[in-house]
Amino acid sequence: MVNVGVLGATGMVGQRFIQLLENHPDFDVTALAASSRSAGKRYEDATTWYLAEEMPESVKDIVVTETSPEAMSNDVDIVFSSLPTDFAAKVEKEFAKDYVVASNASAHRMKKNIPLVIPEVNPEYLDMIEAQQKENNWDGFIVTNPNCSTIALTLSLKPIVDNFNIESIRVSTMQAVSGAGYNGVPSMAIVDNLVPYIGNEEEKMESETLHLLGDYDGSEVKPAQFKLSASCHRVPVIDGHTEAVFIDFDDDFDIEDVKSKMASFKGLPQKLNLFSAPENPVIVKEEEDRPQPRMDRNAGNGMSVTVGRVRKDQVFDNSLKYVLVGHNTIRGAAGASVLNAELINDKIL
Amino acid sequence: MVNVGVLGATGMVGQRFIQLLENHPDFDVTALAASSRSAGKRYEDATTWYLAEEMPESVKDIVVTETSPEAMSNDVDIVFSSLPTDFAAKVEKEFAKDYVVASNASAHRMKKNIPLVIPEVNPEYLDMIEAQQKENNWDGFIVTNPNCSTIALTLSLKPIVDNFNIESIRVSTMQAVSGAGYNGVPSMAIVDNLVPYIGNEEEKMESETLHLLGDYDGSEVKPAQFKLSASCHRVPVIDGHTEAVFIDFDDDFDIEDVKSKMASFKGLPQKLNLFSAPENPVIVKEEEDRPQPRMDRNAGNGMSVTVGRVRKDQVFDNSLKYVLVGHNTIRGAAGASVLNAELINDKIL
Amino acid sequence: MVNVGVLGATGMVGQRFIQLLENHPDFDVTALAASSRSAGKRYEDATTWYLAEEMPESVKDIVVTETSPEAMSNDVDIVFSSLPTDFAAKVEKEFAKDYVVASNASAHRMKKNIPLVIPEVNPEYLDMIEAQQKENNWDGFIVTNPNCSTIALTLSLKPIVDNFNIESIRVSTMQAVSGAGYNGVPSMAIVDNLVPYIGNEEEKMESETLHLLGDYDGSEVKPAQFKLSASCHRVPVIDGHTEAVFIDFDDDFDIEDVKSKMASFKGLPQKLNLFSAPENPVIVKEEEDRPQPRMDRNAGNGMSVTVGRVRKDQVFDNSLKYVLVGHNTIRGAAGASVLNAELINDKIL
Amino acid sequence: MVNVGVLGATGMVGQRFIQLLENHPDFDVTALAASSRSAGKRYEDATTWYLAEEMPESVKDIVVTETSPEAMSNDVDIVFSSLPTDFAAKVEKEFAKDYVVASNASAHRMKKNIPLVIPEVNPEYLDMIEAQQKENNWDGFIVTNPNCSTIALTLSLKPIVDNFNIESIRVSTMQAVSGAGYNGVPSMAIVDNLVPYIGNEEEKMESETLHLLGDYDGSEVKPAQFKLSASCHRVPVIDGHTEAVFIDFDDDFDIEDVKSKMASFKGLPQKLNLFSAPENPVIVKEEEDRPQPRMDRNAGNGMSVTVGRVRKDQVFDNSLKYVLVGHNTIRGAAGASVLNAELINDKIL
Predict the structure, then answer these.
(1) InterPro entries recorded for this chain (chains A, B, C, D) (predicted)?
(2) Do B323 and A233 touch (CB under 8 A)?
């Protein structure tokens, strides 16, 4: 068993880490770090628990520490980070001197030699780690996962870019409120309403997706060459981001072929049989009114992306339209970091 | 005063007709038609009233009739129709022998010589009426308004197509539940959820918008030459459709120029000072998180379309992105027919 | 293994039956009956599946039959019924000639010699079965479970009535939309709204609760002697009924004693270790803002009732106030019938 | 015209004050105070406007001041306060030296010689003002209105206590999220959920209601002698509190008589024809599924309370049950203070 810690343990994504790591066959949560307000308290006393699943017994008595390498137990090997961006920018580097940092924060996602990884999509980016460690003289390293909306989109795109030539993409999102954290979206803002703006979300989707689907030549990432434009919106849904995708292909294509490539897609985590890897990273629904967030967000224990309405555009030639749903705090956040750590544990540690 | 009737008077759009026509300076509701289940009853007794606004006193005692020209009072000049498509296809023609039919139904929208009109956009299509009457040997005629999502989109596009060259459009909608009628969307389908499918909605948007923005040469309509593809979704909002719009222009453009053209746009209803005409058909918001359906649907008494996030696409050259909100049962349905009737009353009757 | 059938198999409670019976150690679903519209089709083809949990593979190929004993397979022993009241009134009796009918319908709940049972509360009412069979000359019999709101309330009351003297109860409910069936509550009725009326619900709570907590003397039920008045309301929650309870005791009481009796309560299903029996029928929360339906409805796999805010009334002497949450389609419907069947299977069959 | 100021002008109730005072025939908003963060800015620049109604033009250019009498313009006569309790406790007294303070804050509601008033219920409590001024040596004074849930309940009770003898009351509330302020209830807490706890709400209802319905003998208030117990809950509704009321009478009563007394109830504001006074303080609905917050909250411009399901309890003798809806930020907050000020302006100033 590998001892792991969670940074930002009392927050919503921190709680998801703890919930997903309960009964994990390889990882054992032994350290929890949070703000100084929580430090020194038992985790159960320090935390307002937000998830419908019960708080695991195994973490209740862990005493929360400050978020610094000095306060972290030596016998921990991996720390999962759901720290706020600004704080992550500084503190994750300090942890990387001695720990593997599997981070859901955006601070280091696009930095040179820091792998931004979805295990089914670009596991080869982990090769950056050696350069990262050498450059910084670190014993540990940082690995990051993308933004929640990006992960779901990119997973659905991977079997397409592997088999077809994409020219351009437009995507319009309908995102769940949990993506903004527990206090992020006031009910006054969202009951009988939606908010057509999420700060920095469009920029992240537009850059991270191309980065993930690019080529790493051993020295740097050459982003994918198609173009992607996003419009991001918040809707009154608790969990599960929905995205309407418009894709222009270079050439004509067979729609059944597209669906078949999506449905049969397997990545490295499936081959390695990693614990959190869903059997099918992409599930294709044929019902005309699916996917729906409440119905499909938990597919594959929240680790699959469900697509539906996969259809040829009736107006634009060589164009595809579909809708996807992915669980934003599982596959789109905590589960993404955990799967990254499982891959690292299997291949590197 | 012109006496008017409402066909489908007990339904949700029928109720909106009645509410909007209360205290109308030119129209007096004197006849209400509905299914045989309601016929013979006082309107108040026949109707489960769905609107937060009170049922107008003036209609409570009107005895509901069957939906046929024979049952309709002779002193009525205009009938407003919110009939179901199949029934409208047949019965609106019968009414057109003697009555002006201002219809919100989709049955005749794309038919030759039947004007599909938004008064600010294509009032000249009313010129079809003469041919329609002659061809059918009717004393009355049918005029139609577009689908709710189409109206809001087309109003926002009109100042753009008048001043710039559009190459193509993608639009992704987030539509209110009232668009499906009172019993259309079960709460089980939409609480903590969304439904990424609305039957025939994408097809209507894709065809009607081009038809409205086309040219009528006195004989037939040549649709606009750009392409438009839609993806339509239902969200947990009572009233107010939201649409995310991606537009490719032929050439570069100035974003302030686009906003200015939208904000200053006036159409014929504004020039004629029609009763239901909003001062500004298109309202441009500068706040980064607007428009929102609960906040903006009632702008211009529900007859304005509010746009926001009007911005240059950061990825695609010569491309524009914005978000719009329009009230789907006022500007998108009953109010659209009423404004058509006001224009007809001013110009033709 | 006992072969079981489900009557009303395509409806919402019917689907819950199928979901709860998946992987059941004693019951094997081998027959599914529904309306003639579905009869003759594979279950998967006949059904719009409403649950977020996937349809079990084992039922997909079962051919749906008409709802009559003649159409039911002979090797079935127990049929679960979620039929509409009127139809249940007639057809459950026909099934009872040969089958054990475990019914969630209200048709026979208050009938003489037909046990209305919550296994933790009044298992002794099953003694009525002998008289029922004799009187009707049936080989099978009918056993019923109460209305969803009643079950949750009565479970929470049982440890109280066993240990204290209750004088009177007022209860105000906030009920989930799933209680009305998939199409029962239109979204237009409940988004940003609530409906302060549920047909017959108050009457059922007021009579069934006293019946369940009464005494069966071997011949008839003498209802409990306290009084209970209910006010029932529908709120925008998918699953999980919440109830605010006001109880007047005859005498003073110790609040910690009440909580302790609730938390430690065990019934016959717990002693018999029945498969669907929750470890704790009543869970007591100390957090000031619990129970909440989204957080607590799935406690004990949806078979526990969670109470909170258990407090002495600050105004009335000898009075108690608390709030409860119970899952209305699991413990309040399908799970209730299944637990009844498990008890019958253990004690009678 | 009387010049008025608003304290807490940028908050949600502060915005309601401004919206309700737009076009007021007697009051002219000339001063706006808020926190030091806003002071010195134009109101439009200092404020995130939360209401669907547009910000009145007349206030946009008013420069916000600090919340102190020194910063307040001398030509103001009345200040409306929606300050947080702790701050109100101190600063309202300072304002009272020179200004009439019409407060929605709870700080001084139950204090000796400070009138807690609903104009239709206990206008005679304004007689306390003389003693208040004398005791404190103030030129101004403080008048308060009750908590939002209390106002709606008490208005509905007034015609009952005037005509019948009440023994005891239980009330269970379903309260809108706006009652907690814009950021008060996170969407994560309330979508597909409810929260069965509102801090101090039950205590306020239990004490304020009896105080309002008591007797003022010229020296102190003797509270009403019946007992009232509350259970308070938050539901996913934007505006409009709903309350289920159980009342025990001393004697038998005629249900039509109760309804008639409620429906015909008029108070002093109606007699004086005050600007914000609704024609009917209490509206009685006969439809079995009303009142509903989305449908009934705006009755009487948000100043009426709508009751429905007024019925005899079928279980308890001499008992009444009904459900009420009142707009919590209009009649329950800003509108209450404005009506108090109108009464004071008519009778005292």
Answers:
(1) ASADH-related, Asp-semialdehyde_DH_CS, Asp_semi-ald_DH_pep-lack, Asp_semialdehyde_DH, NAD(P)-bd_dom_sf, Semialdehyde_DH_NAD-bd, Semialdhyde_DH_dimer_dom
(2) yes
